[in-house]
Protein 1
Amino acid sequence: MSQNKAIEELLKKLAEGAQLNEQQQKQMKDYKFWKTQPVPDLNEKITEEGPIEQKTVADISIQPYPLLKEFEWADLDLNNVEDRDEVFKLLYENYVEDADSTFRFKYSSEFLDWALKPPGYKKEWHVGVRVKASGRLIGFIAGTPADLQVRSKPVKAVEINFICVHKKLRSKRLAPILIKEVTRRVNLQGIFQALYTAGVVLPSPVSVARYNHRPINWGKLHDVGFSYLPDNVTKTQMIAKYTLRNEGKLKNLRRAELKDFDQVFTLLTKFQSKYELIQDFTRDELKHWLFGDNTLSNDKKVVHTFVVEENDRITDFFSFYLLPFTILDNPAHNELGIAYLFYYASDAEFDESDSAKAQALLKKRLTDLIGEALIIAKSLGVDVFNCVSCQDNNLFLQDLKFGEGDGILNYYLFNYKSRIISGGLDDDKHVDYGNVSKVGVVML
């Protein structure tokens, strides 16, 4: 049942005097909260794109939102080791976990620095909630600068991410107040739009994409319960299916260096001009996202970027970042290496005026490039390589043996109406291999 239909059913039950269970009550509360926010209604027909509410900084309260008496707001400084460790612990124990509580994201200090401290970040946008009596951090939400282009229109915005409430306190309705408080703080800086994603359907997605997974170490994935053996196939056959070479074949591929940045910036800017939703990077922002901390050794890097250089010209680049899982209660394995495809660009289609021929050229080039990314990821201890159906990913998913995952990723714009932007899915929300997405933003 779709979320829209589910809400309609719950409303009907309430009208008939029915009592809702705990999950249904939460669903209704979430729906009621978002009905109070400047977001489009579910299934609203968008005729005019742009901001929903028009506000100025003068309209925004300088006072934080009130909390229940046992809690207090915490301004977190991620340059402070104690604060960063508290955020790490909260996210590790409470953020995202599979239904069977088998896997947890394993955040590192390097990852948090990269994800939460891009150029222009403000520590007051790293919002925490503590228990007054103990000082324990039990809630967190983060905003980071992320100006956008929506169908070529500039939108000054932030990206909202890492909203997390302690498992035992989710009945306290802290998530909505965290959202409102970070919104207030962002508004005080004259920013009134935001981009965020969620696996659940809220009012109202601007785009919908699907996760895809490419096993690299299928045997290990099977051993820990991440992958399952299909009927009438042996484990040996599955391992053989996903085996990769140890060395790539693409000539002139090398790890990116800072001297490549100008060409990479120009290449990505041109490549992404075809998408309808992109992040409008400053030079410093893109350098941060693609190169990370250059003082780190390669084995400590969070983001890995590689370029193809021919005759002193960068023709292609790709990047991916690492965010492993901790494996719980498994005597043989304690960590799962996970890579996520990040930004890439190629000049393969630039000089071809025929759109079908241009896409065919790009498909071949991207298949070669991301094939190399898989081999490099393998050398870094990655067990599975993930991506969503954004950018031009649909062109290479089948050829490189990515499997469609169960996870749906909904993209949302806060205080901005936009017509639906294709996330590379068909009407049944499965990957449409015959079409590419119009979303160029990659969310962490």
Protein 2
Amino acid sequence: MAESLNALLQASVWLAITVVLLAALRPLLLALGGAALVYRSWWCVPVLLLALHLPLPMGPMVDALPVLAAAVAWTAPVVVPAAPAWPWLLLLAWALGALGMGGASWRAQRRFERAMGTLRPRADGTWQASADPGLPALVGLWAPRIVVGPAFEADFSPAEQDLILQHERSHRRHGDPWANAVLALLRCVFWFHPLLPWAARRFLRDQELACDARTVDPHPALRRLYANALLKAQLVHPVAPMACHWRSQPMLKERIAMLKEHKRKALPWMTGQVLVMGLCVGMGTVAWASQGGAGAGPSITAEPAAATKAAKGDVDAQTRDMGPPTYPKAALDQGISGKVVLRVEVDATGAVGDVSVLSSTPAGVFDEASIAAAKRWTFEPARRNGTAVASALKIPMTYEMNEKAPTQ
């Protein structure tokens, strides 16, 4: 449970870092490659979040040191306190928030689609709605359709209609409905993130600016006509979370300003692609490598216990196969070190019987991993007067985060 919350917190921190970095780089990317390059730079967000889930190569676990074990008297095992309830409460709060955000988005999308009324096909492959809740728009995910309002022909000239439809077809070719679906998913998962609402608005604005650029850049002479078509649009209805709306009144000034300030891009298209890919890979690599905790590698050692003075012919139990335990991921991610003292019972055949915790620091963090490893160990049994007998061993184990693995 704590591991899941820690992963969510780590992803939230990196999401904030990515959003801030993209906001800082936006003027540079806009000058180098225009609105399309800025929009593609948002690929850094999903790439970085996916990189956080890639497995890290684990550092080599050092073999446990030989244990000179002595039989010890029975000591009552330390009672591990029950896990606190707050991780479950936090997870429940997160789940309720995610479900609430998902339900609100689904209702908004359904309300928009119902408000369009009856759809009828048009000769150009688009669809015409009987009502206008905020059209034209590209609606749908698996098979997105361009839907125009009932007064589409009356409101726009044939040339303006063609530019608007080119704009929506560009959304469809570049998979923008899927990008909006990913955004809706992120808003559900990170509903608590203070920067995500701003990032979502900025992403949708960059999406529209990029689509505007793709539509009018091949035809510079049509910029004034495109701007006039934008000025005719007034979007006063609620928008659908996963629809690509051609009208966008809140950013009308920004879209028209981009049309007026068209400049030649400083970078060719392919160079811009390489730049964005390098940015995504670089940030993803840094986030992925950060999971290891500043390059520190874990080490686990079992320390020798004090030997007792044995009578002639008596032999204490000796280690035969003592594989190291697995460093708990939650402790590894947080750079936690600790120590566990186990009481291991060894029967007359050398097999491990009952394993209990005598002490642990921090309490409960390394107990499960230590017990699981101890149950796999094998020993040479203790002997008394030449006869194999059962015994109990006291074995301290140390978990440390070291820059370099200790040598044998």
Protein 3
Amino acid sequence: MAHSVLRFFGVLATVTALVVVPFSGAAAGPLRTADYPSWDDVQAAKQNEATAQAEADRISGLLDDLEATATSLSNEALKRGQEYLVATYNRDAAQNSADDLEARATEASTKADAAKRQVGQIAAQLYKSGGDNGTVNLLLNGDKSKELLYKLGTMSQLTSQTVGLRDAAEIAANNASSLRSQADAALAERDRLSTEAETALEAAKDAQAAVDAQVVEEKAHSATLYEQLAALKNTSAAAEQGYREGLAKAAEEAARKAAADAAAAADAAANDSGGDGSAWVPDSGSVASPDEAKQIAFNMLGSYGWGSEQQSCLVRLWTGESGWRVNAYNPDSGAYGIPQSLPANKMADVAPDWPTNAATQITWGLNYISGRYGSPCSALAFWDGNSPHWY
């Protein structure tokens, strides 16, 4: 789902709701220690079926909250990261504009100086040929160049060539002044955008710190909550986790289709504002290039039982999705990375370095393709068969 850089962020809220709250519909929000049940609470609830079910529902809601908060914070961090990249793009564009204007102003000043020198040479020639002393003194000794150029125009001794040079010098000088004023304005805008970029970077860092804190929160409580849920339902923690993951996969298909439809509608009404559809994340400046990522993927195909004939299908699929960019970000849906995981933080199932590690993203993507479609070529056939594309 590769789309333009800035669109209607309202779409994100709609699609995220489909993905991050597939169970009880609990709203994302920070939890307190008091919100979590103790094992004594669980044992007491098991005394009768009704209270056991109520406690199980409560624990499911807490798991929903943890997952929804993690996804919401990840999306927020990616959005802030994209805003930072767009801000730096605009800042750099302003700097390039200022540099161009300054270069043009220098060129205009050079032309003005050259024209003035030619006027001076003609004045010298007039002097040598017996020109009026007062005229020559004005030509050679005038401190104010503008006054000199204007007065030159009233001197009958000057030839038509000199008048043309005077006009050219005046035009070039005015042009240089105008261009320098524009360059100064562009530099002021550059400074404003630099401040904006710094602010956006700090917001992105703060958002990422919130993500990191939520990851710690999830790890601290999810395992216990699954064990408590299993105890209440007389199952196993693995079974409960697997059941919830199954429900999430079913919701993901609906979310992917909704995201593709919403993004297509946004594309019809939005314009690019710079950038390339990427998000800043810590260390994203040193991620694998698209060509390097492709080679990583090709080296993995054999472990899934796929031959080299699947390479071209995978290349087409993920070129259409992300351009094989590790930090590719779709603001309409929150999809991220080479395989455009939706939500982005699902790739944490493979490893926590999913924001920047091409191998982690590719592993998640190939697992998804294998489980859902069987092979990259089958996934591509499905992708080709949908307009707008999704898989």
